[in-house]
Amino acid sequence: MFTGIVEELGEITAVEQLGDSCRFRVRGKVVTEGAGHGDSIAVNGVCLTVVEYGDDWFTADVMEETLKRSSLGALAEGSRVNLERPTAVGARLGGHIVQGHVDGTGTILDRTPSENWEIVKIALPAALSRYVVEKGSITVDGVSLTVVEAAADHFTISLIPTTLALTTLGMKQAGDPVNLEVDIIAKYVERLLGDRATTADNSTTTTTGDSK
């Protein structure tokens, strides 16, 4: 589990194509400290598994499903990426609960700079809009953020100077894709309520049938 608090701005140093998958070599001195084979590291919000590693780099395989669901397929040598290690048990939850399982991609529509922050408008896939609410949490390229405005087809976020300077969100421009992970709690609530409604409907049908 992650919290959406980016630890380091890393760099893709090599991309090896492996048919329907690929292998990234990523530079990141902070996240590789104490890393080992099989560990998890979030890259732009996607939980990847460490294959090989060195003092300031690691490699990770990205399968076809991940390439389809996320924007990782657009990365190339030299691309900057947000990096985060899993949160330790008992550590502070600085952002919100983030799984590193991207739900889909959005597209930056425009940026509105202000004196001390910047408002970014992001197109939202229709299938995800019901999970996004004003003042709720959302993960954008691995960064835990608060939704400012939530509409049917887009949402806005407000970025402080630290986020602009220390994550890829300070570099993204209109038209660029971003990885989105909605709040897992919303998805669980929806599933539980859906199952409850189904159970209630089945109970009503059975009762009606018995009464005939």
Largest sheet: 6 strands, antiparallel, barrel
Architecture of the largest domain in CATH?
Beta Barrel
Distance between the termini: 52 Å
Q: Unreliable segments (pLDDT under 50, ≥5 consecutive)?
A: none
Along the chain, the helix and strand elements come as EEEEEHEEEEEEHEH
Q: Report Rg.
A: 20 Å
Oligomer classification: single chain
Number of helical stretches of at least 4 residues: 3
- How many domains is the backbone divided into? 2
Name the features:
212 residues, alpha+beta, Elongation Factor Tu (Ef-tu), domain 3, 2 domains, 6-stranded antiparallel barrel, 6-stranded antiparallel beta barrel, 38% strand, globular, riboflavin synthase activity, Lumazine-bd_dom, EC 2.5.1.9, repeat, ATP_synth_asu-like_sf
Question: What's the helix and strand layout?
Answer:
Elements: E1 8-18, E2 21-27, E3 40-43, E4 46-53, E5 57-62, H1 64-69, E6 80-84, E7 104-113, E8 118-123, E9 137-140, E10 143-150, E11 154-159, H2 161-166, E12 177-182, H3 184-211
Antiparallel strand pairs: 1-2, 1-6, 2-5, 3-4, 3-6, 4-5, 7-8, 7-12, 8-11, 9-10, 9-12, 10-11
Description:
Catalyzes the dismutation of two molecules of 6,7-dimethyl-8-ribityllumazine, resulting in the formation of riboflavin and 5-amino-6-(D-ribitylamino)uracil. Keywords: Repeat, Riboflavin biosynthesis, Transferase. InterPro entries: ATP_synth_asu-like_sf (IPR023366), Lumazine-bd (IPR001783), Lumazine-bd_dom (IPR026017), Riboflavin_synthase-like_b-brl (IPR017938). The protein is of the alpha+beta class and 212 residues long. The chain has 2 domains: 8-84, Elongation Factor Tu (Ef-tu), domain 3 (Beta Barrel); 104-197, Elongation Factor Tu (Ef-tu), domain 3. Helices cover 19% and strands 38% of the residues. The chain has a 6-stranded antiparallel β-barrel. Strands 7-8-11-10-9-12 form a 6-stranded antiparallel beta barrel. It is globular and about 55 Å long. The mean pLDDT is 91.
